[in-house]
Amino acid sequence: MKAYRDPIRLIPVLFLGVIALGTLLLSLPIATADGTPTPILTALFTSTSAVAVTGLIVVDTATYWSPFGQGVILLLFQIGGFGIMTAATLFGLMAGRGFGLRDRMATQVERSRLDVGDARSVLKLVLVITLVVEAIVAVILTARLYVAYDHTFGEALWHGVFHSVSAFNNAGFSSYSDSVMGYQTDAVVLVPIMIAVIITALGFPVMQDLREHRLTWGRWSLHSKITVAGTGILLAIGFASVLAMEWNNPDTLGPMGLGSKLLNSAFHSVMPRTAGFNSLDVGSFEDETLMTNYLLMFIGGGSAGTAGGIKITTFAVLVAIVLSEIARRRDAGLFGRRFGHAIERQALTVVSLAGALIFSATAFLSMTTPLPFEDLLFEAISAFSTVGLSTGVTGELPPSGQLVIIALMFIGRVGTITVATALALGAAPQKFRYPEENPIVG
C-alpha cells in the first residue's frame, strides 16, 4: 500500500495498470482484423508503445488491428498522453511547494515552475488545450481528406481524429500503413500535424507562461525562454540537415520539387524531436541524416508535456556548464540567470543515466541480432526518447529484443518523470562533509 501513499511510486503503478489493461484488450480476437487472438508479446509491445506515446510497432496498425483494436490504441495513447502531462505538471507543483526559498529550485529536469493556485487550475489548462487543439486539427484533417481524397465522410472523420489525437499526444501512431507518406506533397495535411506536435512538445509550463504573459519575453520564466529558444534552434538544425543531406537522395527528397522538399524537410525536423510520423522513408536516409536524428531524438522536447528525450532544458544546462567552464566563469547560466549546483547535478545525472541505458540496450541488441548497428542504435534512442521513428527493423527484432525496447519505452517515458521528481523531493539533508580533495580531470 506504500505505493498508493507515495505519488512518485503511484504513477508508474498506474501506467503499468493501463498497459496491462491495454494488453488484455488487444489480446482479444475482436481486436484483430482476422479475428484471431494476438500473441501476448505483440499485444504488450503495442500497448506499451501506445501508453508511452512512442509509436513503434511490430505489426501494421492499419491492417493487423480491427476498428476495435485501433480504437483501443487511440484510447491508450490519449490516456497515456494526458496522464503524462498531468503527472509531470503536478509533480512540478509538488517539487516547488513546501520548501523554503533557499531550497526551491528554479528549474527541474522534468518540470518547470508553474505559478498557479492549485492543481485544479493545472488540470483545467491541460484539459482545455488538449480538447481545443485536437478538435481543430481533427476538423481540418477530416475536411481535407473528405474533399481532396477518395474517402467517405466516415473514413475521413476516423483518420482525421486518429491522426489529430496521435499528433497532439506525440504518439506517432498512424491509421495508414505508410504513416503519412501518402501526403508528402499536401501541406494542408502535414502542417496541422506539425503544429499540434510543436504545441504539446513545448510543455504546459510554457503554455502557462503564454497564457499569462502572452509574448512578453521579459516576463517569461527562465524555463520558457530556454524551451522556446531551444525549440527554434533544434527545428532549424533539423530542417537544414534534412534538406542538405537528402537533397539528391533518390529515395527521399531527390525526385521532389522545391516546395515539397521544403515541406518535407520542415515536417521531419519536427518529428525526431518526439512525434514519430514520417512523410519520408527513414530507412532510406543517408547515414549523416541518421546521425543528426540521433542527437535530435536524444534531446527531445520541452518538459511537462508529451515530448520524450532528456529534454531541452537538460541539454541547455549542460551546454551552459561547458561554456562557463571554457570561459572560466564561476557560475553557469542563461538569459541573465545562473543555475544552482543542484540543477547542474540533476542534468548530469539524467544524461549519464540515459546514455548508459541506451548504450547497454544497443549492446544487448547487437549481441542478439545480426541487424546493422546504426539501425539498432536508432531504434534504442527512438524507444528511450519515445519518438517512434524507425528504420524498419522493429518487427525483425527477436522476442528478447522486443522486451528490451518495451523496457526502454516505459523507462524513457515514466522513469524520467519519477527519477527527476525523486531528485527534487527525496534529498535527505547531509549533516557532515568530507575533506575536499580533487582528482585530475581531463
From TrEMBL:
Keywords: Cell membrane, Ion transport, Membrane, Transmembrane, Transmembrane helix, Transport
A Pfam family it matches: TrkH
One Gene Ontology term, aspect cellular component: plasma membrane
Membrane protein topology class: Multi-pass membrane protein
The keyword DNA damage belongs to this UniProt entry's keyword annotation: no
Subcellular location: Cell membrane
Domain of life: Bacteria
Gene Ontology terms: biological process: metal ion transport
Transmembrane regions: 72-95, 122-147, 187-206, 226-245, 294-326, 347-367, 403-425
Chief location bin: membrane
GO terms for MF: monoatomic cation transmembrane transporter activity
InterPro entries cross-referenced by the UniProt entry: Cat_transpt
Protein name listed in UniProt: TrkH family potassium uptake protein
